Amino acid sequence: MSASGIEPDIDTVLSDLRLGSGGIFDISPDGERLVYSAGPAETSLTTIAVDRASQRLAATQVLSSTTLLRGRISPAGDKIFLARDAPRGGAHTSQFSLIPRTGGAESQLPGAVENLLDFQWSTDGARIMYLHGIGGNKIRLMERDTTGRGTREIARLEQSAASQFQPLPDGAVWTMPGDRRSISIIRRPGKRDVTWHTPEWISTIGSISHSPDAKSLAVEVANRSFDSVVVATVDIESGRFTRIGTVAGSDPQRITWLAEGSILFVLLEKQGAFALYRIVRGRPAERLGVLPYTQADFSVSNDGRHVAAFGYSDKNDIYVIRNFGSMLAR
Question: Which of 8, 32, 123, 296 is spaced 20 to 30 Å from 45 by Cα?
Answer without folding.
Answer: 123
